[in-house]
UniProtKB/TrEMBL annotation:
EC number: 2.1.3.2
SUPFAM superfamilies, alphabetized: Aspartate/ornithine carbamoyltransferase
Residues annotated to bind L-aspartate: 82, 177, 232
Gene for this chain: pyrB
Keyword Ribonucleoprotein: no
Annotated residues for binding of carbamoyl phosphate: 54-55, 104, 134, 137, 280-281
Similarity comment: family membership: Belongs to the aspartate/ornithine carbamoyltransferase superfamily. ATCase family.
Pfam family, one: OTCace_N
Entry-linked InterPro entries: Asp/Orn_carbamoyltranf_P-bd, Asp/Orn_carbamoylTrfase, Asp/Orn_carbamoylTrfase_sf, Asp_carbamoyltransf, Asp_carbamoyltransf_Asp/Orn-bd
Pathway note: Pyrimidine metabolism; UMP biosynthesis via de novo pathway; (S)-dihydroorotate from bicarbonate: step 2/3
Enzyme class: transferase
Protein name in the entry: Aspartate carbamoyltransferase
Recorded superkingdom: Bacteria
UniProt catalytic activity: carbamoyl phosphate + L-aspartate = N-carbamoyl-L-aspartate + phosphate + H(+)
Length: 329
């Protein structure tokens, strides 16, 4: 693996290899073991052109727990605001010693463009590009789902895929890089994926995706999902035109207290209610009620801690091996 740009590039064995490596990293991610020396002498740059809490901090924690040096770069407050280009920014960071660039950018395709540009020899990790992809989020979601799925079957997660698992992804699919990366990865791992959204928040061409599409959350819940992944409503990408209205959205597509009661009665992986996932940040009272946000079925904080294991695995696989073939994951 040379870069990590899209989950669509991952074969089933690539995906399982990253998830199994993340399982091996979990004792370090959770601080049972303090650090690994794997990336001593390597430097990871977090290059963020959009805001982030979970992704940036967990990449920093992941790199430090592998003994790498970390540089954090936020476009706000940098020479980007004076007009410096992406090419000059990246080459400046490489001249300071970067080996890997973890980039979040508002432009869809930015990470792939950087990896293909020839501007840098650094490994490039896509930490979210516009509405396009967020591959490490999909991997940490898959790790969370796989733990629940394997535990429900009475065995450990390593080597297990998601064959037979039914996952509903609910909400603002149109603007969601989490949904796109999730659909490709969950399909690769054998899960059955359903999308639930208002017609106005589904992308053109969704009928070509390997999913079933539902407009009614209540009908989709009747199909008996093992997991329900709620998406954040991305009002900042809607240009002030939130349609349907927030109240209608919550009533028809929100995980309300009433729908939480139905989720609690579903057969989840362990027969004790479906898993609830959310990539965060959660809009409490919009796509998810406070009771659902705080429910024991909600794995949102497990997802965050699994993000450290997954990002350790990705950095380890990218930086601790030599690549002579120029391949990307
Ligand atoms: N899930 C996610 O990408 O969160 P942040 O925007 O806080 O990184």
């Amino acid at each position: 693996m040379r870069h990590l740009l899209s989950t669509a590039d991952l074969s089933p064995s690539d995906a399982l290899s990253i998830l199994d490596t993340a399982e091996e990293m979990s004792a370090v991610a959770t601080r049972e073991v303090k650090k690994l020396p794997t990336l001593r002498g390597r430097t990871v740059v977090n290059l963020f052109f959009e805001d982030s809490t979970r992704t940036r901090i967990s990449f920093e924690a992941a790199a430090k727990r592998l003994s790498a040096d970390v540089m954090n770069f936020s476009a706000k407050g940098s020479s980007v605001s004076k007009g410096e280009s992406l090419k000059d920014t990246v080459q400046t960071l490489e001249a300071i010693g970067a080996d890997a660039i973890v980039m979040r950018h508002w432009a869809s395709g930015a990470a792939a463009q950087l990896a293909a540009s020839g501007w840098t020899d650094c490994a490039v990790v896509n930490a979210g590009d516009g509405t396009h992809e967020h591959p490490t989020q999909a991997l940490l979601d898959a790790l969370t789902l796989r733990r629940g799925w394997a535990a429900g079957r009475g065995h450990g997660p390593r080597g297990t895929d998601l064959t037979g698992m039914r996952v509903l992804i609910v909400g603002d699919i149109l603007h969601s890089r989490v949904a796109r990366s999730g659909v490709w990865l969950l399909n690769t791992l054998g899960a059955e994926v359903g999308l639930v959204a208002p017609p106005t928040l589904l992308p053109v061409g969704v009928e070509q995706w390997p999913v079933s599409v539902h407009y009614s959350f209540d009908e989709a819940l009747a199909s008996g999902p093992h997991a329900v992944m709620m998406l954040r409503v991305q009002a900042e990408r809607m240009g002030g035109a939130f349609f349907p209205t927030p109240a209608e959205y919550t009533r028809r597509w929100g995980l309300t207290d009433e729908r939480l009661a139905r989720v609690e009665r579903l057969d989840g992986p362990g027969g004790d209610g479906a898993m609830i996932l959310h990539p965060g940040p959660m809009n409490r009272g919009v796509e998810i009620s406070a009771a659902a946000a705080d429910s024991p079925l909600n794995r949102v904080l497990d997802q965050v801690s699994h993000g450290v294991s997954v990002r350790m695995a990705v950095l380890h696989l990218l930086l601790s091996q030599s690549h002579d073939d120029g391949s990307s994951a």
